[in-house]
Amino acid sequence: TVVTHVGAPQLAEVIRGLAHAHGSGCPAGIVMSAGREDETTVIGTLGDITDRLAGTDLPAEMVVIVGRPLG
In 3D, which of 23, 35, 27, 26 has the Cα closest to residue 61? Predict the structure, then answer.
């Protein structure tokens, strides 16, 4: 399992790197506004997580969680 704190501008690059290392089918989750009232979590795979975020107003920073325990 990998947990990392990522800035919005680097998100796509980080996801590509993780997909290369772990495979596009690896489960992934992104937590936005962690610990706040407006916390939002998006779950998918490294292959589709950026598509699942389409249209989302991304915060400046978020937490990315990758690994089989999510699946």
Answer: 35
- Other CB atoms within 10 A of residue 28 CB: 27
Report the distance separating Cα 28 and Cα 67, nearest Å: 6
Strand partners, 30: 42, 64
Between CA 52 and CA 15 the distance in angstroms is: 13
Rounded Cα–Cα distance for residues 28 and 3 (Å): 10
Question: Measured between alpha carbons, how far is 51 from 43 in angstroms, rounded to an integer?
Answer: 11
pLDDT tens digits along 16-35: 999 999 999 999 999 999 99
Question: Do residues 14 and 62 make contact, with C-beta atoms less than 8 angstroms apart?
Answer: no
pTM of the model: 0.90
